[in-house]
Amino acid sequence: MGPFQRWCRVTVVGPAGTEVARCDLEGEGSPDLGTVDQVARLALLAGRLEGHTTLGEVSPSLRELLELAGLYLEMEGQAEIREETLGIQQGEEEAHLGDLPL
After folding, report:
1. What's the pLDDT score for residue 49?
2. Which DSSP letter does residue 89 get?
3. Rounded distance between C-alpha atoms, residue 53 and residue 13, angstroms
4. pLDDT category, 91, cuts 50, 70, 90?
5. 71/43 Cα distance (integer angstroms)
């Protein structure tokens, strides 16, 4: 077993701009897709509370995983990866006559 490493600090901010919760995500070695799942679930929870999630002290390896997963979150003290933050969007795909069945 190796030493624990902090991957990031997650802050959930409520609709009034007040901090609702804060936690550190940490573990042995590098973060994995389970860590990305935890971040996404916290972001979904914040969205349900009409708030948002902010990440602080993000490790380079977690930042890379979040980019690969397409999760664009607000990160404290760092240039944002992209202007938009994580959001759930629903859409329907159009079917065309020439499309192959899935």
Report:
1. 85
2. -
3. 6
4. very low
5. 10
Q: What is the number of structural domains in the chain?
A: 1
Q: What share of the chain is helix, strand, coil (3-state, %, to 5)?
A: 25, 25, 50
**Cβ 82 vs Cβ 72: under 8 Å:** yes
**Residue 84 domain flag:** no
| Nearest one of 38, 88, 47 to 66, comparing CA atoms | 38
Q: Is residue 96 part of a domain?
A: no
Look up the domain containing 15 and give its range: 4-75
For residue 68, being part of any structural domain is answered with: yes
Nearest-angstrom CA–CA distance, 22 and 20: 7
SS3 53: strand
- pTM higher than 0.85 for the full model? no
**Residue at 27 is within a domain:** yes
Taking phi over 0 as left and psi of -120 to 50 as alpha, with beta for the rest, 69 belongs to alpha
- Taking alpha carbons only, the member of 40, 74, 77 closest to residue 57 is 77
